[in-house]
Amino acid sequence: MTEIQIEHVDADRWTDLETLFGRAGADNGCWCQYWLLGAGYHHRDRAENRHDLQSQAGSDRAGLLAYQDGRPVGWARLTPRAELTWLGARFSAFEFTPDDAWSLPCFFIARSAQGSGVMRALIRFAAEWGRARNVPIEAYPIDVAAPGATRNRFTGVLPAFLDEGFVVAGRLSDDRVVVTTGEVARL
């Protein structure tokens, strides 16, 4: 298996991210604007979503890119939770900690790289990055063991996060948990 390298997305890596996402803009044209806009991203022209992600890349807020053999094979958004306005609105009943956590809410892995450890490499890199800066990293994966768990796994799956040292901090729904690298004061 080829080694996976992880890099932060910036303006210089935009072309690689655009190549990975393809003409469709990842799975459905969201260009990872869902956690910022909610379902409203569907009502916008895909070019607007693409433009917004490109702007986020220019401000170093677009996330991480995974490479194998020099080509982009995976991506994860890594951004301050405070910027994910739809997350707080959609799960307003959940009491998020008031800390300055960064979120790892979304992944896109090329079909050719699925099952090769790309998601885990992205999770590991984000956790190590946060620990080095004393910044908690938070995510909202699917608990695949929950009855009726959604098959929409763009937020990642719980076992991958637990394997990388995240701990469960609560639940947003029956099948979606909150995990963190920070201290857990509630459960």
Structure commentary:
The chain has 187 residues and is of the alpha+beta class. The protein has one domain (4-180): Gcn5-related N-acetyltransferase (GNAT) (Aminopeptidase, 3-Layer(aba) Sandwich), CATH 3.40.630. It contains 6 helices and 9 strands. It has helices spanning 14-21, 34-37, 46-58, 85-90, 118-132, 158-163, and strands spanning 4-8, 64-68, 71-76, 79-80, 102-103, 107-109, 137-139, 167-171, 177-180. The strands form 2 sheets. Strands 4-5-7-9-8 form a 5-stranded mixed β-sheet. A 4-stranded antiparallel β-sheet has the order 1-2-3-6, sandwiched between helices. The longest helix is centred in the last third of the chain and has 15 residues, at 118-132. The protein is globular and about 35 Å long. The termini are far apart.
Spell out the key features of this protein:
9 strands; 5-stranded mixed β-sheet; Aminopeptidase; 187 residues; alpha+beta; 4-stranded antiparallel β-sheet; globular
